[in-house]
Amino acid sequence: MTEPMPSPGPERTFSPEEVAETLGTSAWWVREQARSGRAAHLRLGKSRIRFTAAQVADLVNRATVVADTSRTERQPEQVDASVLGATVRSLGAHRTRRSPAAPSREAT
Questions:
Q1: Which residues, in sequence order, are bridge partners of residue 52?
Q2: Alpha helix locations (H) across 1-108?
Q3: What does the pLDDT read at residue 104?
Q4: Cβ–Cβ contacts within 10 Å for residue 22, how many?
Q5: Per-residue pLDDT tens for 30-74?
């Protein structure tokens, strides 16, 4: 008869501060991920949360952004605005306005 393998003991857990230091982020962000349900975690007591190594790895996987190589760089379209023609408003905006201090050309 074979004997069952002895249990290696409880798995090491990490505090939000330890996870934050490992990930290079703030402990607040780590706690917020747990509070919002985006990160699996252990809740010990009323307010103490801990993370296993597998949960930290899962958090990293969820936060990883994969580059989308299927998209091509979008170039702006060249639009020929001359076909639209000038409007009364655009013509008025480009009229030169004489300042009262400038001498009039008609006086000479």
A1: 13
A2: 16-23, 27-35, 53-63, 88-93
A3: 60
A4: 13
A5: 999 999 999 999 998 888 999 999 999 999 998 888 887 777 777
Report yes or no: 50 and 13 within 8 Å, Cβ to Cβ: yes
Give the C-alpha separation, 102 to 28, whole Å: 63
For tokens 């007591």, the residue is 45
Helix axes 27-35, 16-23, angle to 10 degrees: 120
* Amino acid, single-letter form, for residue 105: R
Q: How far apart are CA 62 and CA 7, in angstroms?
A: 30
Domain ranges of the chain: 13-63
The first and second tokens of residue 34, run together, are: 């747990």
pLDDT of residue 85: 78
Q: Which of 53-62, 75-84, 97-106 has the highest mean pLDDT?
A: 53-62
